[in-house]
Design a protein that fits this description.
Blueprint: E1 7-11, H1 15-27, E2 31-35, H2 38-48, E3 52-55, H3 64-71, E4 79-83, H4 88-96, E5 101-104, H5 109-122, E6 132-135, E7 138-141, E8 146-149, E9 152-154, H6 158-169, E10 174-176, H7 177-184, H8 193-207, E11 217-220, E12 224-227
Parallel strand pairs: 1-2, 1-3, 3-4, 4-5
Antiparallel strand pairs: 6-7, 7-8, 8-9, 10-12, 11-12
Helix pairs in contact: 2-3, 6-8
């Protein structure tokens, strides 16, 4: 993808910064989307699939770190954090959850543009994955947090959706009980397999054609669970 074709999403609640960044990027041939809240950013990213995201950490409805973490569950384009927070701990936290770069405000526009060019060059061959899983009669839209069975939307609790999302992202691979518990509930619950079994049972009743003979969430006895990959019989 060439520079003049690259779509960049800028996320910041400061109107002046949004305006200045959009002007600078459009002047150099980029297409630009802007969002002033985390939820708006997630929705735009899901629909428009930008090639790069510039993200502020301080947003009115949610933390920029949470936005980055959510985006990284289904989108692998470069994320450059732009923030007034300049402590090393803030930078480490952002990079650890999936940000590719970190630039503090106030910033030099020429340096920002150079970093954008560098990230886009490296990501030029990166495929853009749709954040939607369409499996037989089951459809899961990760970004919108929607699940449909036979065309009808079904409600999952936050925990059930987190389990389904993690299993989908690791489709075809065995995910141990401990890893699932730690990912969804935290390290204090990594031995609570009974809690996990109850929630998996509830999830199966909602998404499986026959919960007693699951087609999607398969049990690996004594080890964990595996979401059936497309090539599985």
């Amino acid at each position: 993808m060439t520079k003049t074709e690259a779509l960049i999403l800028v996320v910041d609640d400061d109107v002046q910064i949004l305006r200045a960044l959009k002007h600078a990027l459009v002047a150099r041939g980029y297409e630009v989307l802007v969002a002033s809240t985390g939820q708006e950013a997630l929705e735009l990213a899901a629909v428009q699939l930008p090639r790069m995201i510039i993200l502020d950490l301080s947003l009115p409805d949610m933390s920029g770190l949470d936005v980055c973490r959510e985006l990284r569950t289904w989108l692998q384009v470069p994320i450059l954090v732009l923030s007034v927070k300049d402590r090393p701990a803030d930078k480490v936290a952002a990079l650890d959850i999936g940000a590719d770069d970190y630039l503090t405000k106030p910033f030099d526009t020429s340096e920002l543009l150079a970093r954008i060019r560098s990230h886009l060059r490296r990501a030029e061959q990166l495929p853009v994955a749709e954040p939607v899983y369409d499996l037989e009669n089951l459809k899961v839209d990760i970004a919108r947090r929607q699940v449909f069975r036979n065309g009808e939307e079904i409600h999952l609790t936050r925990t059930e959706f987190a389990l389904l999302q993690y299993l989908l992202q690791n489709a075809g691979r065995v995910v141990t009980y401990g890893i699932l518990l730690q990912h969804v509930w935290g390290p204090d619950y990594e031995t609570d397999t009974q809690t996990l079994r109850v929630h998996i049972g509830n999830l199966r009743r909602k998404i499986e054609p026959d919960p007693d003979r699951p087609r999607f969430i398969l049990t690996e006895p004594g080890v964990g669970y595996r979401f059936r990959a497309d090539e599985d019989s």
